[in-house]
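Sequence, please.
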């Protein structure tokens, strides 16, 4: 099966996910670009990148970039996207599960017992729960 016949899903509004999403597009693949940040909903970290921009990069590279806003901590949103991909593409071939979003939550040069507990728990949710929820529904 050629890349043009495969469907990809990448949490890809910025960083490595963005770069990874563009490459299957360059080979003609369909890539669902997901994340929370859209042109209408800014990043909680004031980052400028959006899922729409990444989808446009995929399409400009020769593929079919599809922006789909999903909060990967919300299992029902993830499941709806998987159902959509299966309905539109027949299957999901490749999942790039590279969610993070905790860059502003880490605390350097402080003892761990002095860290903000809410931030630490949020970082764990973003770094672990998102991956488990996404893997559960996409497998």
């Amino acid at each position: 099966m050629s890349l043009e016949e495969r469907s990809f899903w990448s949490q890809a509004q910025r960083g490595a996910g963005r770069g990874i999403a563009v490459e299957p597009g360059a080979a003609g693949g369909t890539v669902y670009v997901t994340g929370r940040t859209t042109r209408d909903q800014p990043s909680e970290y004031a980052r400028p990148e959006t899922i729409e921009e990444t989808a446009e990069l995929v399409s400009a590279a020769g593929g079919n970039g599809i922006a789909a806003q999903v909060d990967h901590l919300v299992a029902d949103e993830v499941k709806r996207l998987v159902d959509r991909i299966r309905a539109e593409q027949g299957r999901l071939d490749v999942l790039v599960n590279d969610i993070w979003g905790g860059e502003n939550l880490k605390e350097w040069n402080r003892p761990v017992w002095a860290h903000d507990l809410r931030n630490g728990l949020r970082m764990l949710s973003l770094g672990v729960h998102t991956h488990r929820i996404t893997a559960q529904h996409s497998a």
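The mean pLDDT is 86.
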